[in-house]
Amino acid sequence: MDKLKMHSPDLSQDNIAKIRALFPGCVTEARDEATGAVRLAVDFDQLRQDLSDHIVEGPQERYRLDWPGKREALALANAPIAKTLRPCREESVDFDTTKNLFIEGDNLEALKLLQENYLGKVNMIYIDPPYNTGKDFVYEDDFAESSADFLERTNQKDENGNRLVANTAANGRFHSDWLSMMYARLHLARNLLRNDGAIFISIDDGEQANLKRLCDEIFGSENFVNTVVWEKRYSPQNAVKWFSESHDFILVYAREKMNWYPNLLERTDEMNARYRNLDNDPRGVWKPADATAQAGHGTKSQFYELTAPNGKKHTLPNGRCWLYTEEVFKKMVADNRIWFGADGNNVPAVKRFLSEVKQGTACQTIWKYNEVGHNQEGKKEINKLFPEASVFDTPKPVRLLKRALHLAADKDAIVLDFFAGSATTTHAAFQMNAEDGGNRSVISVQIPEPTDEDSAALQAGYQNIAEISKERIRRAGKQILEGECHPDWNRDVGFRVLKVDTSNMKDVYYRPDELQQADLPGVVDNVKDGRTAEDLLFQVMVDWGVDLTLPIRRDTVQGKTVFFVDDNALVACFDRGINEDLVKELAGHEPLRVVFRDNGFVSDAVKINVIQIFRQLSPSTEVKAI
After folding, report:
1. pLDDT of 76-99, one tens digit each?
2. Do residues 571 and 623 make contact, with C-beta atoms less than 8 angstroms apart?
3. In this predicted structure, what is the pLDDT of residue 394?
4. Termini Cα distance of the chain
5. How far apart are CA 326 and CA 340, in angstroms?
6. Measured between alpha carbons, how far is 571 from 614 in angstroms, rounded to an integer?
7. Tens digit of each residue's pLDDT (9 = 90 or more) over 511-568
8. DSSP state for residue 238 in the 8-state scheme
9. Residues of the chain with CATH 3.40.50.150
10. Are the CB atoms for 142 and 76 separated by under 8 Å?
11. Would you give the distance in Å from CA 288 to the centre of its chain?
12. What are residue 269's phi and psi, to 5 degrees?
């Protein structure tokens, strides 16, 4: 019976396999110096030659963004980790039914753990990362670790248990550390986007230029959509030395630009007010539009003297031609699509009917505060939810995120925010669902960054940012449910809390070759003490790429606890004493996947027979053990 690997995918080996499919002569086998195991490796000299039509000698200069630590950041992104996601029911809301996730932990590790579950499934990503102002924190990633050492690592934390350090301007790697942090995370995030998906990234002037070039490399410059300018302040700041900053940026990239197009914005009353019905046309309101075009764009047939129905002659201004040929114009006049004024003497204009124009408008790249909110609005929104203390200084306004969601997240979209912070993204998605009856689901990721010692948040009892994020979602959901909601909305304002933690499996599970005889009494069970069956279930779901929001039913079958994930998507039993009768009953459910504990069978004979039982009763079931 095959065993589940129980760790995140080794992306470097996956990428090498893809290269081998295209360039088989460029991939060889090499022995890992650390473990002695044979692994696939790329012959980069041969690959460079295969990709060139001339002899390649030595490194070639090329246009790119480089910084100290770039290669280490990419290696870190590709290295697997022996981590898992542990469920936390007591901090969740509607754990058994919700389609939303809140993952507490380092977002680099969370993104790795989501690689198989959400590969190519996310419609939209929005992130508001640290702006690198010299005061913000960055993630202190461990670049010294190789992929061969990943199983020996337990936690990437400093002596105080934190993964965050202040990135001061005095740091000699001020920009480099920030870029390395973003590079590894965006590299992984791209894998999760659908081919018709897009990412929105908020940033300020400090790193906008570097972030743009970084994203050009990761997503491809051809997939750059636009830079949005958001007016974040509505009044000038006079106590400044140079300019009063009134804006931030939002970089927008598509996974594949030709597959992604933003939704149109709703037409405003002001836009529609420009349409009137001056002649009581049965087709409805319209507005006059110029009937001429630049002469350079026309053909000979578009230059003529136009005669109005009342006999008045209309000649063309210099440098202009008519929009249509004379024959087409006459047909439009006969169809009452040309307006010559109430008395018939005006310059001809084309009637543009509101019923025939797009029922929406293209989004502009400047987002005014009166349309999408400003910093103060965001602060007021969260203060209303947290009247006891000011828990966030500069949260984004809900209207800003609703604009981004409207453009890129249709009603059934999966949205990811791996710098959740004040959880505005989730709040905005809930609000949109309540308004239009949508089923947008949100995956939020937030590291438990400690709140400042002198902060109002800590005084109010919030030990870290993740606690505030979760509480904001709880309170926002309750507030939305108390308001007016769309009748078709499923009213899902819950979230399933999963926490990044070390693997549920003891080290012997990963490195049995290092087991000594003296260690045998302590390894009768390969599961760590204190880990529950539901902990094991979620690690299996992560490892097998099963949707982490699927409903879970816990039943007792022949005296054993059995988990049914989405009825038959996955069946799991981690109890001991499993016999053939139980195996046959579970096979009768014909699950897509089934998993048992490797040492959970009453005898070796039963363990051996499991494959045969499923082959007879449910041949399509994939059987694994942990």
Report:
1. 888 888 899 999 999 999 999 999
2. no
3. 85
4. 10
5. 16
6. 13
7. 555 545 554 444 457 888 889 999 999 999 999 999 999 999 999 999 999 999 999 9
8. S
9. 78-265+362-500
10. yes
11. 44
12. -60, -35
Whether the Cβ atoms of residue 411 and residue 429 lie closer than 8 Å to each other = no
Q: Which residue from 153, 188, 115 is spatially nearest to 501, judged by alpha carbons? A: 153
Structure tokens at 439: 């089923």
Mean pLDDT of the chain: 85
Which of 3.40.1400.10, 3.90.1150.10, 3.30.70.1450, 3.40.50.150 is the CATH number of 78-265+362-500? 3.40.50.150
Q: Which secondary structure element, helix H or strand E, spans residue 214, and what is its range? A: helix 205-219
The string of pLDDT tens digits covering residues 443-472 is: 999 999 888 888 888 888 888 999 999 999
pTM given for the model: 0.80
Question: Is the predicted pLDDT of residue 584 greater than 90, yes or no?
Answer: yes
Among 226, 341, 334, smallest CA distance to 278 is for: 341
Contact yes or no for 506/519 (Cβ under 8 A): no
Tokens 């140079």 locate to: 242
Where in 161-246 does DSSP place strands (E)? 164-166, 193-203, 224-231
Residue type at 461? G
Give the length of the chain.
626
What pLDDT, on the 0 to 100 scale, is given for residue 355? 84
Residue 378: closest CA among 234, 207, 199: 234
Query: How far apart are alpha carbons 374 and 381 in whole angstroms?
Result: 11
